[in-house]
Write a structure and sequence with these properties.
heterodimer; A: alpha/beta; 5-stranded parallel beta sheet; 5 strands; 18% strand; B: alpha/beta; 7-stranded parallel beta sheet; 14% strand; globular
Chain lengths: 148, 302
């Protein structure tokens, strides 16, 4: 029997909007995964500690405050420092096209904007979960081309 | 797995977290790691279950207790259980949302929190947490708490996996007759009436004490707490740390173990999903289904 994937969904920084994170968490749950939700306003270190202690395979970061360009790479760097380089990281929220290449460059494998069908996120999870080098600190330069 | 085990036993939390997953997935068993001797002093427990109805404040209270213990230097681990979807198998594990102790840098090295889904087991605790708790003890955690799924009057499965049972109640939980009913309250080693800042808490605690008074001398203590406001938490933390077993749960513990093991052998039987499908289609009746699941994993009669 296939074991469910463990996925942490996190809200870094001073951002009180979690409707999107909850919709994504719910879609992942309904697809049969085990989703650990951190709640609002977490620091990068708290998120990395949660991923470590919960032995999560994936980390989803949500930001609607405009701080993604600072916070997302910080989380990725701390993951690698903690030896969690095999964790697969994706992001979502209000993230302009122009900001996305820099996020992909630090190992974030997908960035989803508003209007993304949840089925696309599930497809990304499925695709990335069978790769062996899609972790945040691993060699692959692959990333998912999001439709929104 | 050998290196990872040595790292985990030496205090590496990442290695420990991975091996806990391996235990949960059935890839790593208690025969493969050193076991801690069972506690001998009657006031020293190792594994405590915290149970009670949904919404009575278990998570916030557990967080407050862990903060109190970790501040005193006790290393405490929590296995927080939430339900898996009976339809898809997925789960939303949200107990961390209310936890502050793991994020407090002054004590976070003495606090470990792990979220667990019930997966294929019924009841408020999957039996596998017994093995996970044993591994945490082997890794040097002194006390393991198990926070069960929010559960009601007759859910006793937590007795199978814990040395002590804490029942959390809330204010205004029905009339005085509720306190007289048989079930979970009979197995409690202590009862915490939480949300004591709200009206009705004191009255409910009074009703519980009146009911227990009829049991005689070995009846459990009833304390008022508010995890949110911090009321009574220091007293409860002290009382819980040296809590003696009331001895009331001994037979129930064995019965729940037996039932849980039996259930585990059923749901892990290779024919299990096929038999469920056949039941849904109406091609098997319940008795035929049970016969199909009676043999061992290779289909031989046991």
């Amino acid at each position: 029997m296939d074991q469910p994937l463990r996925i942490v969904v996190a809200k870094p920084g001073l951002d009180g909007h979690d409707r999107g994170a909850k919709v994504v968490a719910r879609a992942l749950r309904d697809a049969g995964h085990e989703v650990i939700y951190t709640g609002l306003r977490r620091t990068s270190q708290q998120i990395v500690d949660t991923v470590r202690d919960e032995d999560a395979r994936f980390l989803g970061l949500s930001s609607l405050s405009g701080a993604h360009a600072h916070l997302f790479p910080q989380v990725c760097q701390k993951l690698v420092e903690a030896g969690l380089d095999d964790v697969i990281v994706f992001g979502g929220g209000i993230i302009p096209e122009d900001d996305r290449p820099a996020l992909h460059a630090v190992g974030i494998r997908a960035v989803f904007g508003p209007g993304t069908p949840t089925s696309e996120i599930l497809e990304f999870i499925q695709t990335a979960s069978v790769m062996d080098d899609a972790g945040v600190g691993q060699a692959s330069d692959w990333h998912w081309d999001a439709t929104a | 797995m050998g290196d990872e085990l040595q790292q985990a036993l030496g205090g590496d939390r990442r290695a420990m977290a991975r091996l806990l997953s391996a235990i949960e997935n059935g890839d790593f068993t208690p025969q493969q790691f050193p076991s801690m001797p069972a506690a001998t002093e009657e006031d020293h427990w190792q594994v405590m279950a915290v149970t009670g109805a949904p919404g009575v404040g278990k998570s916030v209270l557990v967080d407050a207790l862990m903060t109190a213990w970790a501040t005193e230097g006790v290393r405490v681990a929590l296995l927080a259980v939430d339900p898996s979807s009976p339809r898809t198998g997925g789960a939303l594990l949200g107990d961390r949302v209310r936890m502050t102790s793991v994020d407090n840098p002054a004590i976070s090295n003495r606090v470990y929190v792990r979220s667990i889904a019930t997966r294929s087991s019924s009841g408020s605790v999957p039996l596998i947490v017994e093995d996970m708790a044993a591994f945490l003890l082997a890794c040097g955690w002194e006390r393991v708490l198990i926070e069960t799924v929010g559960s009601g009057q007759a859910e006793l499965r937590c007795a199978a996996v814990a040395d002590r049972i804490v029942v959390v109640e809330g204010p205004a939980r029905g009339d005085g007759i509720q306190a007289e009913k048989a079930g979970l309250l009979e197995l409690a080693d202590i009862v915490l009436v939480n949300k004591a800042d709200l009206e009705g808490a004191e009255r409910h605690a009074g009703e519980l004490m009146e009911s227990y008074a009829l049991d005689g001398e070995d009846s459990p203590q009833v304390l008022l707490t508010s995890g949110l406001k911090g009321l009574g938490v220091a007293e409860a933390a002290q009382a819980l740390l040296s809590l003696k077993s009331s001895g009331r749960a001994q037979r129930a513990r064995m019965r729940e173990r037996l039932l849980a093991q039996h259930e585990r052998s059923l749901v892990h039987h290779p024919a299990y999903n096929g038999v469920l499908d056949a039941l849904c289609e109406g091609t098997l009746d319940i008795n035929e289904a049970l016969n199909h699941l009676k043999g061992d994993e290779n289909g031989r009669a046991s």
